Amino acid sequence: MSEHIIVTLSEHDRDFLRRLFMALTQDLAASVTALGTAVDNLSARLPGSGPAAGFSVADTDVQAAITGVNAQIARLNNFLPSGNPSPTAPQIANVSPASGPIGSQITIAGSGFGAAQNNSTVKFNGVASVLDANTKWSDTQLIIDVPVGATTGGLMVNVNGQDSNVFAFTVA
């Protein structure tokens, strides 16, 4: 029986993995080149027939190894998003207080909310908060009222179509 694991990575994690794969593959390609040079130097120092004695690595072998490495790089890159990275998804670090009645004011701390509210939303278990004069919006902090109709469940911020992580909120 085959098992499949689906992992959702943030853009930050994908960027980190992209850089890690690039560094590893560059190091691997450099190592293959160094190996070829070392083998060439060794075979030149062997007395007698050297490579004819059964130990040789031709430049074409080294090039084939590098081509193989490049093929593996291409395969790894298929797992990573292409093009320009998308903006970082908003992240909720804390909600204070983590419970409150309808109409009470809460503070959502985190990152990636954007400097202005624009078309962004805050939802309490699927119910959108009303953005009014009491609402304060910055890239790292939101001050917002618990909307009418809100129920206990997940609180989420959506910025430019990207959902944040879900934070538990209790309507008291």
Structure notes:
It is a single chain. The chain has 172 residues and is of the alpha+beta class. It has 2 domains: 67 residues; 81 residues, Sandwich (Immunoglobulin-like). Strands 2, 4, 5, 8, 9 and 10 form a 6-stranded mixed sheet that branches. Strands 1-3-7-6 form a 4-stranded antiparallel sheet, with no helix packed on it. The model has no long low-confidence stretch (mean pLDDT 77).
Structural class: alpha+beta
Total DSSP helices: 2
Oligomeric description of these chains? single chain
The N- and C-terminal alpha carbons lie at a distance of 46 Å
User: What is the CATH top level name of the largest domain?
Assistant: Mainly Beta
Uncertain segments: none
Mean pLDDT: 77
As for the number of domains, it is 2
Quick overview of this protein structure:
31% of the residues lie in helices and 24% in strands. The chain has helices spanning 11-45, 59-77, and strands spanning 91-96, 99-100, 105-111, 121-124, 127-128, 136-137, 141-145, 153-159, 162-163, 167-171.
